[in-house]
Each structure stands twice: as structure tokens, then as C-alpha cells.
Amino acid sequence: MTGKRITIFDTTLRDGEQAPGASLYPHEKIRIAKQLERLGVDVIEPGFPISSPGEFAAVQQISRMVSEAEISGFARAMKEDVDSAIRATADAPRRRLHLFVSSSQIHLDFQLRKTQQEVLSMAREMVAYAKQFVDKIEFSPMDATRTGDEFLFEMVEAVIAEGATIINLPDTVGYALPEEYGAMFEKVRRFVRGGDKVAYSAHCHNDLGLAVANSLAAIQHGATQVEVTINGIGERTGNCSLEEIVMAIATREGALGVQTGVHKEHIYETSRLVSRMMNFPLAHNKPIVGRNAFQHESGIHQDGLLKNRNTYEIMDPANMGIPRSMIVLGKHSGRHALKHRIRQYGADLAEAQLDDVYSEFKALADASKHVSDEALLHLLDDTVDGFISPYTLIDLQVITSSERARVASATIRNNLENRIATYSGTGEGPVEAVIQCMKQAIELPIAFTDMELHSLSSGERANGEAAVTISYDGVDYRGVGIDEDIILAVAQAFMSACNQAVSANVRVETDRAATGPA
């Protein structure tokens, strides 16, 4: 079934950047804008031009370089704002102006200190003024969900009469319930003169955790555009999350009867880029892109997933560009999950060996909560004759300084060739120094692509967990290390990921040798 197309309006660079601590440099905004265009969003709101010279310049440059997405110039219902937005977006191949003014009585009384008629006059005059320059005008009565129906209808009717083409009804403080928010769209469309001649947009905040639900309710009641941010970032608790609503629409397309034009395979990389640039780490349980979204520790779940992914997952993470690492080893894990993980290192254990490893694994998991790749490999090396892992990190030393480059030295055993060597490296930080010296031991062109650091407990002796992702030959490999020394945990995680890559490469080379030339 092909449903109607929902316009995805991304305001990460405007509303999202208003989150405390999320401020971006102009070059960072430009990079994110390029990625949003690659992601396939329909509209990009690149900032608030009047707010600063740097913001104006960033909006202007993004307007010039974006060719696929429409650009939205954001402005209060004030002439200087509108003029600034018009100038900043003048070179965009396609653009609209997005005007707003408060409409709720609490905003009028305590923020604007204006009467309803004064605000109505501002809205009418500025929409008419903007219409001289741009055909496509979006108008937002701010705090619409706390505005009485009578005044909301009057304001919407006035701006439609002056040429507004898109009416955005924002839940500015995340107050509405889905049935209330959907009903508001229904009422405006039915009772406002000209209300059936314009498009409607939903802009929802997440103060009660209802931003996605409210946006879906709006779609079900006639909205054809949703305003979103990457990772749901935004003021207070954030906005409707792009990845959540896009995947809700894709997963339940049969029930909703709509679709988007977002290229889902770029969701994960876009999420990671915004998270890094805005310095906003993602919660482990964040839907779609959170660390735990497609990971499973329960033995029952792991067994089902290994037999058929659909038993416990309603989406395929690969479709969103998310690296597959669904099995997390802990005290709830079962034999099937452990056997699966061991096979990733190229080892097939006899049942008696697996029994021994599983018994020791359970004892370790009960004692430490988490079982890192490094700890698992030690268990395996103690069980089998020889080494499972191609490389073993024997010793690591890091010298740090506040004024000089950091220096690292790593002693690594090459188990494939039965030799030990020591390598050294330098870097701006200790992690870079460690990775630089360890790369020298690995005989493959490994690319270090991502790293996550987490504290597993509190206090001075807290364990730190590092998750490192590397890339080799177009495939990502992820390793996890746990230690009181977080730099050592990073080294262990990097070593684990490299061991997986090398093991996979060894299997490929072995298969080629066995089959002979094509």
C-alpha cells in the first residue's frame, strides 16, 4: 500500500540547538545540514537569522549549499526578524518563511504583555508583509495547545486571509494529550474559514514524553508535516524525535497509511554526528538509536533472536545503518548466546569445553555484572590448547602531560606467529597515543571509527566501560573493555574489535586457500 507522503521538517539546527549546551559553531551547522540533506529530510530550518551575525551567516551559507531540501527562514512576527530571514535565505533554490507569535493568554499576559487584538494585528501585518517576498508562508501560533479555541480560530483565520499557506499548531510546552492534540487539528480544519485550503504541521515538545504520540495523532487528523529534531534534542526535554517518528511510520505503515521520504539507512550515522557535535550523549534505552535498542542480555531473548530476529525485534537495525551487536553477555545470558559469541572469534568448542567455559562465565558474570570481550577471551585461552585470539595485550603504559604530547607503550603478543613485540606511539590525548601504538601490531588497515565511555558504578574505584568500533574492508567490528583504568578499558576494547576483524580475515583467507583459485 502506498500512503500519502508526510513532509519531514527538521529543526535540529534551530529548535534543537536551543537546548542548553547544544550550541554549534557555524562550520558544525553546515556539516550537519549536509548530512540532513543526505538523510532525505524535506525541509531544513537552519537557525534563527536575527539572533546573531554568526547565526545569520550560517543560515545564509546553508541556504546557498543545500539544493535538495527546502530552507525555512525563522522569524518572530516582527519586521526586523522577517527582513533578516528574507536576506539570509535569499539564495536558497527553494524556501519558505516561518513566522510565529504567542497566542496563549499566559504568554500574552506575562511574556508579550500585549492584548489579543495587538497580537492579532502583529500576525496579520507580518504575514502580509512576508508574502510580498515569499509565496510559501508557514505560521505558528505559539503555545497553541493552551490557547482557547475562539482566539486560536480567529488568529489562524486572519493569517490564512493574509496568505499563510501552512499552519503549524505547536504544543510548545508538551502539555497536550494525543486525543486533545488530534482534535485541535480537526477543529481548526473544520471551523476556520479557509481552513480546508492550507496544509497543517505538528510541532511537539516532549515534556510528558508524548511528542511522538502527539505527532502521530496530528497525522491521523490531517497534518501532512511533522517538525522534528535528530535524537529528539531541543529545549527542556526536547522535540519529536526524527528517528522515532520515521520508524513508527515505516513500521506501522499499514495502520497509519502514510510514508516519508527519509533514507533510513542514514539514520544512525546522522544520530551519531549530532550527538557528538552537540555533546549530547544518548540514553542507553533511547528508542531506535540508543545503545540498548537492539541489544539483548536475557537468555530467552538471545535464544529467540539467534533462531529468528523477528521473535524479539520489530525492526532490522541494518536498515538504519546500525551495527549489529545484538548479544550482550551478562548473568542472564544462556549457552546459545555464549556459543554464538565464541564463534565470532573463529572458535568451535566441544560440548565439554563449552560446559567448562559456561560454568566459569556464569561465575564471572555474577561477580562483575558484565563480561567484557577481554575477560571472555581469557576464559577461552585457559580452556583450549593455545590461544583463541590472534593478539593479546600483555602490558600497557601511558605517560600523560598537561603541556606535551601523550606517550604510550604497548606490549602485544602475536598469537598467530608466536612472537612478542613492544610498540610506542604519541598523540594529543592518551587514547590517540594508545591507538597509534597498538595499530602498529595489527597487520590490517584498521580504521578507528567510534568510541563510547561509560561509568558502571560510583566512587573512586568505579569501573569504566569502553566500547570501541573499528572498520575493516567495509565491515564494522565492536569490542568492549571494562577496567578501573578507563584508558586500559579502551585498549582492551580496541584489541577485542581488532581480534574479531583479524579472525574474520583469517577465515576468509583459509576458505580461499581451501577452494583454490576461481
CATH architectural name of the largest domain: Alpha-Beta Barrel
Largest sheet: 8 strands, parallel, barrel
| Percent of residues in helices | 40-55%
Number of helices: 17
Strands, total number: 16
Distance between the termini: 44 Å
Q: Outline the low-pLDDT stretches.
A: none
CATH superfamily of the largest domain: Aldolase class I
Class computed from helices, strands and strand pairing:
alpha/beta
Widest sheet, order of strands: 2-3-4-5-6-7-8-9
Overall outline: elongated
Rg calculated over all Cα atoms: 27 Å
Mean pLDDT: 90
What fraction of the residues are assigned to beta strands by DSSP? 15-25%
CATH topology of the largest domain: TIM Barrel
Question: Could you say how many structural domains there are in total?
Answer: 3
CATH structural class of the largest domain:
Alpha Beta
Family: Belongs to the alpha-IPM synthase/homocitrate synthase family. LeuA type 1 subfamily.
GO molecular function, one term: 2-isopropylmalate synthase activity
Pfam families: HCS_D2, HMGL-like, LeuA_dimer
Pathway: Amino-acid biosynthesis; L-leucine biosynthesis; L-leucine from 3-methyl-2-oxobutanoate: step 1/4
Write structural notes for this entry.
The chain is α/β, with parallel strands linked by helices and 518 residues long. The protein has three domains: 4-277, Aldolase class I (TIM Barrel), CATH 3.20.20.70; 299-383, Recoverin, domain 1, CATH 1.10.238; 391-513, Double Stranded RNA Binding Domain (2-Layer Sandwich), CATH 3.30.160. It contains 17 helices and 16 strands. The protein has helices at 26-39, 53-65, 79-88, 105-112, 116-131, 149-161, 178-191, 211-220, 242-251, 253-256, 267-277, 299-307, 335-343, 351-368, 373-383, 430-439, 486-515; strands spanning 4-5, 7-10, 43-44, 70-76, 95-102, 137-142, 166-171, 199-204, 225-228, 258-259, 391-399, 406-414, 419-427, 447-455, 464-472, 475-483. The strands form four sheets. The chain has an eight-stranded parallel β-barrel with strand order 2-3-4-5-6-7-8-9, surrounded by eight helices. The protein has a three-stranded antiparallel sheet with strand order 11-12-13. Helix 16 runs parallel beside helix 17 (486-515). The longest helix has 30 residues, at 486-515.
